[in-house]
Amino acid sequence: MPKTEALNTTEEISSTEVKPSFIEEYAPIAKDGLWDNNAVFAQMLGLCPLLAVSNTVINALGLGIATMMVLIISNMSVSLIRNIVRPEIRLPVFVVIIASAVTAIELVMHAWFHELYLVLGIFIPLIVTNCAIIARAEAFASKNTLGKSFFDGLMMGLGFTLVLVALGTMREVIGMGTLFSNAHIMFGNGMQWLTIEVFSDYDGFLLAILPPGAFIGLAFLLAGRNYIKIKQKNKKKRQKQQDLKLEPGIIS
Amino acid sequence: MKATILRNMMMSAVLLAGFGGLGTALVMMTFEATKEKIAASEKANLLKNLNNIIPPDSYTNNLLDNTLVVPAASQLGNKGPTIIYQAWQEKKPVAVAFSVVAHDGYTGNIKLLIAIKASGNVSGVRVISHKETPGLGDKIEIEKSNWILSFNDKNLEIPARQKWKVKKDGGVFDQFTGATITPRAVVNAVYRALDYYKYNEKKLFLDQAKYDQLYGSTSQ
After folding, report:
1. Whether residue B48 is found in the same domain as residue B58
2. Pair B44, B68 in one domain
3. Is the pTM for the entire model greater than 0.80?
4. Is residue B172 part of a domain?
């Protein structure tokens, strides 16, 4: 035991002496949000809006960005007040912050993205109930600095948006044979050219647009992610074994 | 001991109230900042919907200014009063637009916006909201199919009363493969709207003051 203790102290000293660089500090946050600890893939949070509005790319992008904005605002506010709020009332305070942020975002969307607001409807106020947001407030923002919390909100939101858009792309291409349909409700009337017809004269595949399509699509995405993870793990294992074989002298 | 607990409780309560106040202030500020823009967006959206079914070059007035509120009628399917939007070319009536609700859709109500020319012909119909099955019943939307345009220029005489049905029921309007109930509901709703227009033709182009004077106030 004394040996490990000594190890710990040397580590601590080195960490105080050599301040970790910007990239060293922020890269893990990005990796966490986008892949390792992705809100959907790893935490399985926020699935209700994910499954409900991922029927087209534009809907997915709209809700993804709205969620990201809420995550950033709530993470930053929680980080700012993390030293003032007492632990016994921290959850109600977080809820108040998140609810206010969501309401503000809803009003802004109602004003400037009116048609998108009409399409997304109830799912904008329902961002409040997305557990991913309060989870980040509690697990990250309440313990970290403003800058890091902002970056964490951005990356978690981006990770959520990317999965939403991936699912939206799958469902829209398979279900309707188009991409970016209704692009004008998000980017304005000048952007209607963005709509791509992937297959012309496509009759549509109803299953992909209906709710079961969302579940099946998500299952494929999760399977794909697990496949990549297992492959990476095996690769690392093999690398290790190879290293051991190459330099037998070191182990002995 | 007791005093510290009490003080802690007070502190927590004050903090919580403070954050509640801050949150409310944020929402209030956003509301004030977006209020006008939201009203303008809603108006613009409504006007866009109306212009889709009444050609904008066929009238000269502001549709949103010349409105008439009429009481609920069974033909319209509305529970409350309905707003009639009037299109005028100088002093000549061009068309009226109003919403109709079909209660006999496959899943829930179908809300339509219909415009009828002064001659009694349909100027245009659009679906405002519905809950029909995606891929089947949603072909009533203009984004999905041109079906809704088949009402244009129809009236109570053309086609004849017994032909105001989907083809499956012996009428002239197409149904969709796998969905007959939805188009049937829309056809019936449009017919009822035309019927309503025929019996209220004289009233619908009055201004509100005159209408209230002749037929009693509807604003209560």
Report:
1. no
2. no
3. no
4. yes
**Residue B143 shares a structural domain with residue B45:** no
The answer, yes or no, to whether the previous bond of B183 is cis (omega within 30 of 0) is no
Q: Are residues B3 and B74 in the same domain?
A: no
ipTM above 0.85, yes or no: no
CB distance from B21 to chain A under 8 Å?
no
Interface touch A89/B41, C-beta < 8 Å: no
| DSSP track, A220-243 | HHHHHHHHHHHHHHHHHHHHHHHH
The Cα of B178 is separated from the nearest Cα of chain A by a number of Å equal to: 12
Q: What is the pLDDT along chain B (220 residues), one digit of tens a residue?
A: 678 889 988 988 999 999 999 999 999 999 999 999 999 988 888 888 888 888 888 888 888 888 888 887 877 888 888 888 888 888 888 888 988 999 988 888 899 999 998 888 889 899 988 888 877 888 888 877 888 888 888 888 888 878 888 888 888 888 887 788 899 999 999 998 988 888 888 788 887 777 777 777 654 4
B58 and B47 part of one domain: no
- B16–A92: do the CB atoms touch at under 8 Å? yes
- Residue pairs between chains A and B whose CB atoms are closer than 8 Å: 68
Cβ of A96 and B23 within 8 Å?
yes
HSE, side-chain direction, 13 A CA sphere, residue A17:
6
Average pLDDT, integer, range A202-226: 88
Q: Residue with structure tokens 């951005």?
A: A154
* Number of structural domains found in chain B: 2
Range of the domain at B31: 1-53
Q: Is residue B220 part of a domain?
A: no
Same-domain check for residues B42 and B79? no
The string of DSSP letters for A109-122 reads: HHHH-HHHHHHHGG
Does the residue B201 lie in any domain? Answer: yes
Task: Tell me how far apart the alpha carbons of residues B161 and B158 are, in angstroms, rounded to a whole number.
Answer: 8
Nearest to A209 among B34, B45, B135 (CB): B135
Point out the domain boundary residue: B32, B53, B74: B53
- Amino acid letter, B152: N
Mean pLDDT value across residues A132-161? 92
Q: For residue range B171-184, what is the model confidence (pLDDT) as tens digits?
A: 888 888 778 889 99
Q: How far is CA B151 from CA A239, B2, B84, B187, B197, in A?
A: 70, 78, 20, 8, 15
Instruction: Say whether B11 and A86 touch across the interface (CB within 8 A).
Output: yes
Give how far Cα B8 sits from Cα of A87, A167, A205, B11, Å.
12, 48, 61, 5
pLDDT at B61: 84
Selected residue of B26, B48, B133, B145 to mutate for chain A interface (largest A Cβ count, 10 A): B26
Whether chain A has a CB inside 8 Å of the CB on B107: the answer is no
